[in-house]
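This part of the workshop introduces the protein records we will be handling. Each record describes a single protein and holds just a pair of labelled lines. Instead of coordinates, the fold is spelled out as a row of discrete tokens. To make this concrete, we reproduce a full record directly below:
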Amino acid sequence: NRSRAGKLLGSASGRGVTETQTAPKRVLVILTGLYPNGAVLSTLTTLKYLDRTRVLPELFVLNPGEAWPDLLRKTPVSYGRRPGEGKLHLPLLLARLWHVLRRSDIVVGGLEMTPTFLAALLGKLSGKPSVGFVRNSLPELLRGLPGRYTTLTRRLYPGLDRVVAISTGVQTSAEALIPALRGRVRTVYIPVE
């Protein structure tokens, strides 16, 4: 999976980098929280094993909480809402995210919905590539959510540069729901899933 993730994110070259070297991509990964579930565990495990000579991940977590500290040891973490703070207000969240995004090359929504909405929005505003993850059938997932999520999904997901699906079935359902994604969805099987 290291080489597959590296190929998905591509290679970078910048000032002071020779043709035989590539600078590691700085990747901002957005998560809703560090909840004890399979999707978060999968994301953190993937981040732990990325080849740091190619990819330097940084995690932005919308809600505070600690889980799996051994998986976070090598990955810097920033929080949208810090422990002890009240309700998170959107302007403050966006300011904190923008601050972290400035030092990143790519922005990734580590889960469906809010993290991917934010990745698409920040990618458009900053001009940086954006990637979203889809772990579940989007039509099935949206069925259980308020209608605004369907509207946001249909409007923001097409703005992503790439979408990673964990299976061909998930890929097919995403492309059926949002035809503009055809050709931009890649299936990457993640063993932890």
About this structure: Residues 10-18 have pLDDT under 50 and may be disordered. The CA atoms of residues 92 and 106 lie 21 Å apart. The beta strands are 25-31, 55-61, 77-79, 106-109, 130-134, 162-165, 185-187.
